[in-house]
Write a structure and sequence with these properties.
Number of helices: 6
Shape: globular
Strand content: 15-25%
Radius of gyration: 17 Å
Order of helices and strands: EHEHEEHEHEEEHEHE
CATH topology: Rossmann fold
Bound molecules: 6-phosphogluconic acid
Largest sheet: 7 strands, parallel
CATH class: Alpha Beta
Oligomer: single chain
Strand order of the largest sheet: 1-10-9-6-2-3-5
Number of domains: 1
């Protein structure tokens, strides 16, 4: 896959400053989209990196976000009960439940199906209901990146990464919980505005690989295969993830 979208890259001294930088941008974007469109769709990722961002948005920044005009979806989910601490939905909702968003604005990936494949089919229906075209075009997408260069639950070598005729797929992670449900690259590549939040030295290899792909023009790791047809990509990194020694 050729690289067609050059990302903007912002590097900060600390994870805290990185989160603040991204939060400011997200708040501004959400407000702009809501003024222009009346509603803003946000596709969230899970994992631990975005947790301080969620906390900041619902605490310090709560009054600056038009919560009643936001619809939240998930880029991926661990196929575990919501009572499980690994649940992306449960972790995010421990923050977003403090806002006045109505249940109809929250679109979790279902996990109460016999298999991840059936859950994926159900979520695909929900995305199709939401989207005007054949593929939903999310206004804002928040992605993380694994040390192996995965994003959402699109892992190197997993079949879900190559799915291009579905919106949602079952996937397998090399780490527990292995069974996942993830949106596919076509959904990510239809997005308007994609933001990667990546911090910590464990991610420097994946970021280095991502940057090499940018330079060579050939996508390699899953994160570099996120190439929105007519959207933007911004990377929000701290110095260790960017491969720079943390400055004092
Ligand atoms: C997930 C995420 C995944 C995450 C990366 C980074 O469900 O785990 O969607 O893509 O963004 O694995 O995870 P950390 O932020 O925990 O390092």
């Amino acid at each position: 896959m050729d690289i067609v979208v050059k990302p903007d890259i912002h590097v900060f001294k600390s994870p805290e400053e990185t989160v603040l930088g991204l939060a400011d941008r997200l708040i501004s974007k959400v407000n702009t989209v809501v003024v222009e469109e009346g509603v803003c769709s946000l596709l969230l990722s899970g994992g631990s990196t975005p947790v301080p961002l969620f906390k900041y948005l619902v605490e310090a920044a709560a009054d600056h976000i038009p919560w009643d005009s936001l619809h939240i979806f998930w880029a991926d989910e661990r196929f575990v009960p919501r009572s499980n601490s690994a649940s992306n939905f449960a972790n995010a909702m421990s923050y977003f439940s403090r806002t006045d968003m109505r249940r109809a604005q929250i679109h979790p990936i279902p996990v109460d199906y016999p298999s991840a494949e059936e859950a994926a089919k159900a979520y695909e229906q929900e995305l199709r209901l939401w989207s005007i075209g054949s593929v939903p075009r999310f206004d804002l997408v928040l992605l993380g990146m694994g040390a192996d260069g995965h994003t959402a639950s699109l892992f190197p070598g997993d079949s879900a990464l190559a799915v291009n005729d579905r919106l949602v797929s079952a996937a397998m992670s090399p780490d527990e919980p292995r069974s996942r449900v993830t949106v596919t690259l076509p959904v990510l590549n239809a997005a308007r505005d994609i933001h990667f939040l990546v911090t910590g030295s464990t991610k420097s290899g994946a970021i280095s690989e991502y940057r090499k792909a940018q330079e060579s023009g050939r996508a390699t790791n899953p994160a570099s295969k996120v190439q929105p047809e007519s959207g933007r990509i911004t990377l929000w990194l701290d110095e260790p993830a960017a491969g720079r020694p943390a400055s004092g």
